[in-house]
Write a structure and sequence with these properties.
Elements lengths: L2 H50 L3 H9 L6 E5 L5 E4 L14 E5 L2 E8 L2 E8 L1 H80 L5 H32 L8 E4 H18 L3 E6 L4 E4 L1 H18 L3 E9 L2 E8 L35 H11 L3 E8 L2 E9 L2 H4 L1
Parallel strand pairs: 7-9
Antiparallel strand pairs: 1-2, 1-5, 3-4, 4-5, 6-8, 9-10, 10-12, 11-12
Helix pairs in contact: 1-3, 3-4, 5-6, 6-7
Length: about 400
């Protein structure tokens, strides 16, 4: 049962208890008032008989004048019935004692009037019928009120829980993302760890020359760099999932960050015979984190260099309230069935590609680039990819404060 349903049920149980207690209280109060009213009528009738009494003949005359619906019975000192009102509707009580008592649906009072014990009665049938109607009314109103309250309570519970549900769902997503990230990371760590161990064990298995040691150490260094980049990327994404990464945004020049990132990648591009060009206009002020924005650009450029034939181009310009940065290459493109997955963590369209700056080739470069862009209010997307190459686009918001 959902939290919303549980709250609604709890609310209904409390409301039902309150309504039942209220109805029981009202019913008991009305019943007590009706009984008190009957007893008051009987008491007033006895007092009237007592005030009019002078002797037996007088008492008989008074009793004969009683209303047809009022029953009066007179008993002698031995409890024998002497006479009754001429229109009495109920049977005479047998040897009554003084005080109030009830016989069936009849309420009675017995009191001394002179030497006689006089009993007068009043029917409770009408009042009991009224109480039955009151009970029936409660039996209809209370369930109806609970049904209406159920719908209202479910609606109100949904509204009141909406912020909490959103927080719980975000927490659940974060936990699931952390679990998935841990599982994927564990899988990715196996390969470099195995390579490092294998290189070390093979190298130490026998005496080798200086060149062999150098090659083994270089392989271990390469895998260590891969591990370091992988762990850095994983930690960054883990903090992003948990929303624990504080982004220190300042007024910076996006053009300077772009030029710096391109210069940093020139050596890698040149070593592979790749031409890397950059075109941007103006200072391009923006409010953001320079280091994260640089990393976003490095990841996009590294991805393009890894998948190009011989050319990578970066172009940046302002388009209204946004900056648009495009990174294009002339590689063979991304397979159509892989294009929807390229921003998934640890996804690699080509397992055979050389590892670069995107987290050691672990498939974290594009997810990190997109997260950084979104953390700045923008986004990264694949514009197009075909056999003639791919084009990625990063959109970042223009900042007035950055222009001041």
């Amino acid at each position: 049962m959902s939290v919303r349903a549980k709250l609604t049920v709890a609310y209904l149980l409390v409301l039902a208890l309150i309504l039942v207690l209220f109805a029981a209280g009202v019913y008991a109060f009305v019943a007590a008032e009706e009984r008190a009213n009957v007893d008051r009528i009987l008491h007033e009738r006895i007092e009237a008989l007592a005030s009019d009494y002078s002797d037996e003949g007088n008492l008989r005359e008074v009793v004969r004048q009683i209303e047809p619906d009022d029953d009066v019975f007179a008993y002698d000192a031995k409890g024998n019935l002497l006479f009754a009102s001429p229109h009495h509707l109920r049977s005479a009580p047998l040897k009554p004692s003084a005080g109030y008592f009830t016989i069936g649906s009849t309420r009675c009072i017995a009191a001394k009037v002179g030497p006689y014990l006089v009993v007068t009665t009043e029917s409770l049938a009408g009042r009991r019928h009224a109480l039955t109607r009151l009970f029936d009314a409660f039996a209809v109103v209370i369930p109806l009120a609970l049904i209406i309250a159920a719908f209202g309570g479910y609606f109100l519970a949904g509204r009141s829980l909406r912020p909490l549900n959103a927080a719980l769902q975000a927490l659940e997503r974060s936990v699931q993302q952390q679990k998935q990230l841990l599982a994927d990371t564990s899988h990715e760590l196996r390969t470099p760890a195995a390579i490092i161990r294998s290189e070390a064990e093979v190298t130490l298995s026998r005496e080798r020359g200086g060149e062999e040691y150098r090659r083994a150490i270089d392989a271990i260094r390469s895998e260590s760099v891969h591990l370091s980049n992988l762990l850095d990327g994983v930690l960054l994404l883990a903090r992003a999932d948990a929303q624990q990464t504080p982004i220190d945004k300042r007024d910076v020049q996006l053009s300077s960050i772009i030029n710096d990132a391109v210069q940093s990648m020139q050596t890698l591009a040149h070593s592979r015979g790749i031409t890397l060009t950059c075109a941007s206009n103006g200072g391009m002020p923006i409010r953001g984190n320079a280091e994260l924005l640089r990393r976003m650009l490095l990841n996009l450029l590294s991805n393009a260099i890894s998948f190009t034939d011989n050319r990578v181009e970066l172009a940046a310009h302002r388009d209204g309230a946004s900056y648009v940065i495009t990174v294009s290459d002339n590689g063979r493109g991304i397979p159509s069935d892989a294009q929807a997955k390229i921003f998934d963590r640890f996804f690699r369209a080509d397992e055979a590609r050389t590892r670069d700056l995107d987290g050691g080739g672990a498939g974290l470069g594009l997810p990190i680039a997109r997260w950084i862009a979104r953390a700045h209010g923008g986004d990264v997307r694949l514009v197009q990819s075909s056999s003639s190459g791919s084009v990625f686009e990063a959109v970042l918001p223009f900042s007035e404060s950055g222009a001041s």
